[in-house]
Amino acid sequence: MTGGAETPTARMRKAWHRARTSVRKAGVDYFRGDGSDWIALAALLLTVPALALTTIALPAWCVPTALVLPIVAGGLLLRPASLLALYAASAVALIAEAGVLNTEASGDGVRVTPGTILVVAAVGFLGLLIAQFRSRVGVPWRRGGTMLFDLRERIRVQSKLPKLPRGWHREMALRPAGGQSFSGDFVVAARTNGGRTLEVVLTDVSGKGMDAASRALLLSGAFGGLLGSLPPHAFLPAANGYLLRQDWDEGFATSVHLVLDLDSGDYEMFSAGHLPGLQLCAGTGRWEEKAAEGPLLGVYDGAQFDPIKGTLRPGDVLMLFTDGLVETAERDLTEGMDRLTGEADRYVSAGFQGAAWHLIEAVAKDVNDDRALLLICRH
After folding, report:
1. Residue 218 needs a FRET pair 20 to 30 A away by CA distance; which of 84, 90, 105, 307 works?
2. Which residues form the PPM-type phosphatase domain (predicted)?
């Protein structure tokens, strides 16, 4: 006979499967920051009486101030409303501990003193501040590190240079200020015109490190969308207009836009208040400055950006960089560029593969500023 009633064993298996699936889904949602915090609240609420009983039974091993442990965890994991429930349970536990330890004769001499109450209350207050801050930001503590990692990886991916055809070499090195993971310098690049043209934009956002990283992330996404969608001569004016529309208090940036024909080696370079590039001419063995004219981005509307033209011949090298690499309070721009070219000369005979990072280390290792260096070589 088919279609009969399910056996009790089958019903129990289905119920167990549904319960297990629900718990697993709730756990995944919680650690993704999408679900309720009841799991953490339940665990911490169970921890409070466990600590209280241990303190009463073994006061020499578990002191009354051990209640700060679930309170600290609650400040990091719970929402403010749930945190208040945990605080209520902790207060009841502390009263119970005081009622037992302060009335019974204890050979260990452990007591719930006013100082104990002040310590637990102070930690609870700090935990509540942390929970309220997370609630305003809207980012759970358990996802904060993941979000920062995702932001860093997005900047890294956007700064990745496309592969070039045989006969060309490119590399990029970026070192944020103070050893941080975020920088106000960034690169966006794309091959356009059917892959025959390389367009690269190196930008230095005002500020440094974490202060400039949020603006750098926003601008890198916007600049990446503009690159290749507009003619080369229209890119910096569009970028300038975008910055002006943001209306930031510290909203200016310098930028250099390189448009390189990978067949002929001819290039145009547009600059928005950026430092000049340096080109090594293989025929003479000398470094030449390549400086285009243009104002800073985000200063005034209607700015004009006049390009400079050049050609990369076999053996030539072009370096583009930000001011943190060559300019410091103790070293002017000319001295810094001389030092950079002097260090770069060491790679002329052996080749510039892997040179970008080593050049930053040699020229500006301990500089408290964002540093970026882009190398393009033609073999």
Report:
1. 307
2. 169-378
